[in-house]
Automatic annotation (TrEMBL):
Annotated GO biological process: methylation
Domain SET per the UniProt entry, residue ranges: 52-240
GO molecular function, one term: methyltransferase activity
Protein name: SET domain-containing protein
Keywords associated with the record: Methyltransferase, S-adenosyl-L-methionine, Signal, Transferase
InterPro entries: Rubisco_LSMT_subst-bd_sf, SET_dom, SET_dom_sf, SETD3_SETD6_MTase
Source superkingdom: Eukaryota
Statement: the UniProt record of this protein carries the keyword Transferase: yes
Coiled coil: none
Keyword Transferase tagged: yes
Organism placement in taxonomy: Eukaryota, Sar, Stramenopiles, Ochrophyta, Bacillariophyta
Species of the source: Cyclostephanos tholiformis
Amino acid sequence: LPHRGAVNAAASVGSRTSSVESTNGGVDVDPLISKFPILVEWFRRHGGTIDDRVEIGYESGTNIRGTIANADIPPDTVIMYVPRSLIMGGVDWCPDVETLRGEIELGSRSKWHEYLDFDDSSGSRLPLEWDRNGDAVRELQVHPPDGNIYHHLDWFAGEWGCVAGGGGGGRGKEMTDLDFRAFKIVLTRAMDEGLVPMYDLMNHHNGKINTYIKVDDEGGVYVVSLLDIPAGFPIYNTYGRSGLQSTNALFGIYGFVEDYPQLWQWSDDELDRLSEEDEHHAYDRYVTFDKYYYYDNDENDGDDDERPYHSGGWANKLDLEPNSPLYEVLVISPTLAALLPTKHLTGVLGNGQLSVEGWRKEIDYHHATLHSSHVDSIYDSAMRTLDSLPTTIEEDEEIIQKHEMVRSEELKDERVNAIPADTLMAIKYRLAFKKALRLTMDVATREAFYNETDEL
Ligand SMILES: C[S@@+](CC[C@H](N)C(=O)[O-])C[C@H]1O[C@@H](n2cnc3c(N)ncnc32)[C@H](O)[C@@H]1O
């Protein structure tokens, strides 16, 4: 979803505030849901189309609001169409935030009033809202996502950003609450085209993704079903397509740890050194010798590699381009993962669904072409990282379990304190990351990889 320009950036389950209001009739009405027909009426009045089978609701057992099918939707159905005239912004960060600020200020006189009225961005909590000196930051333990959780905010508010900075089109001012509100909406809801009403009600799930997007020549956005969406099932989007956004980065922006598949990334001094010495070092991870060269099955297609001895060129042809130069693990389930995945593998993410059996086959092939020396490196790094952390997986699990118990006690006794929401988010994140590191070690130990000695 919102990964664009300079910030290259896209709340949390546990931290969403409840907003149930009571009506005169004594029936509880949740405006986050009940105002949807008003939004739909506004949307259609301005030229948008939306299938009647699209509804808004909470994903089962959670407080995550999103789009849900109220009846079966067959594949290739245009679920919604958002004309360019309904899309706000799409120019660049600073002008887009500025446009949005202006529309918020207009209140009910804004063309987007109904859209803005339905927005729930303030009900979510992002890591960049954490206290910089607080417990949550300390409790992360592991590398902060994307290097620094305040990175987007610091840019926005900084010298080259949109508020204070001269360089980035800023107004030379202090950031106001309204600036922040607009920034947060753009960060978590906009796509390259801008803020796209209705489309932006879809949540992220790379495992259960069931839509794709088409943009027409005028800049209008179509959402089309990728496969059958059964009644009662959420209608999902992706915020991290084709391995471009790691699970760490998604957490850094939105504050949720995505469901499987997850793509965890990290680095260490040794890897940083290797990357500096040779920018193509990651290409050496895979076996690219003649035996596999027959995969370039069109010798006469005119695109034969101009640099045949450059392993990167060879690797591309063989679908063996690394997704990134970092240590990386693509986690499919608690027991299945691909170490150092190629772009071919991560290309599935956000673009379609693959069964566990399908992933198993792809991963077996992938691991058979992965040099065991590189597997040793990622194993060592995962082990060193885990060993260096102050708490273990089991201790973190116990902390969370105790918290859940305290929370149920708390309902009865207000004096008992549960872990504050931000800290809990941090602990859940570090636990998921540690599990990915441990799985990396397990997979590296038990699976078969390409052994260099066989090459001699
Ligand atoms: C573009 S909006 C999606 C619709 C939004 N849930 C709503 O009700 O308006 C993005 C926000 O949805 C929430 N979200 C989306 N996918 C999620 C997921 N898989 N888990 C938890 N929260 C998610 C996050 O709060 C995120 O900032």
